Amino acid sequence: MYRDVLILYCRAPNAAPTETGMSRLALSDSDKQARDWFVKTTKALGCTVTIDNIGNIFAVRPGRREGPATFAGSHLDTQPSGGRYDGILGILAGIEMLSVLQEHQVETEFPVGVVNWTNEEGARFPISMMSSGVWAEEIALDRAHNTREVGGGTATVKSELERIGYLGSTPASYRSVPLAAHFELHIEQGPILESEKQKVGVVKGVQAYKWFTVNIDGRDAHTGTTPLQSRADAMLLAARLITHTHRLATAHNALASTGILTLSPGSTNTIPGHVSFTLDIRAPADATVEAMEADLKRDFAALAAGKDIGGLLANSTPGKPLSVEWRTDFVSPATIFHPDCIGVVRASAEAVTGDSSLVRDMSSGAGHDSVYASRRCPTSMIFVPSKNGVSHNPEEYTSPEDCALGAEVLLQSVLRYDRM
Ligand code: HGY
Ligand code: MN
Ligand code: MN
Ligand code: MN
């Protein structure tokens, strides 16, 4: 039963796109389809379903006693061209947990549940881990509701929640829907488990990260008539700043990328007068992210003023000084999970694998809803290997066996915690 369900949903990368597809942007029609399936399936498994006013869906199966439920949680939304495992694996394994409990008529001490957190990816609406953040009362509901989709569309989180029928009435808060504990099964999305030939990651925490938007204002001008020294070329400066970001990431032993870059006016023979690009900066320690941010701001201002940094401007004609403006879009401090939950995951993983050498403690390079869940309840995560360490890519792949093993560890973790 376990393997069948997970194999069904964890299709090989070359399989034809299915209804669970590779692109299920938050609050899109395909997200609605998956949500509707989630609600129908969990209700059929005897759960009560609560939808809050940021679209989080909480399915709860009653236990012998009343009280907050121990949850399996993750997210249904994906990147624009994401894989078939990021997020949905944790949801499917949670639902599989409920069906196994139902099938074997297991009565848990307290309620257990599965939660789908709205817009974990922040791909369409650019706030990462948005709705677990609202539930934890760390992201304001209004800010989340009014967030517009990237690319200048008119849709907002609130208008899309209304359109797909998931603007619930329950206030999104840990006070209205308390969780006893939160366990998240997730693909590792990196190369460690596979390269170390291990099967389960016991996740102890998540690294720090910050998102920025950098705006550069120069001047539109004719490519063919404007001498190099009198240009205010926003795109040339952006290219230098992004190159420099990579150099500072190397120097700080951090990670960084630019995932969105827009320029105007967007014509082959006009020097771009405006460029906007994003920065995603990550490192295990908050202090490293802060130090890198300070160096970037200092060096971006210097490069914009035409001062050379590390030979970046060597052998080139200086143009006009430009202005660079920063906006901080998102901040996630380094997170440590709860020792009780870490212990439960480790004990479950060792019991399920029967071999502690296949189990390793690790921290997460990616953000997850467990970051905000851990602000308000004991939390930990379970990682399973990613083929070639690839994720946020249609080639994302985890074998059905590894998915099923992770689902078993999730079930055992929730049951162990329920009995604690
Ligand atoms: O950005 C992240 O790490 C997560 O996928 N939202
Ligand atoms: Mn994810
Ligand atoms: Mn992701
Ligand atoms: Mn994530």
TrEMBL record:
Belongs to the peptidase M20A family. Residues 209-304 form the Peptidase M20 dimerisation domain. It comes from the Eukaryota. Pfam families: M20_dimer, Peptidase_M20. One of its GO terms (molecular function) is hydrolase activity, acting on carbon-nitrogen (but not peptide) bonds, in linear amidines. Keywords: Hydrolase. It comes from Daldinia eschscholtzii. Transmembrane segments: none annotated. The lineage of its organism: Eukaryota, Fungi, Dikarya, Ascomycota, Pezizomycotina. This is Peptidase M20 dimerisation domain-containing protein.
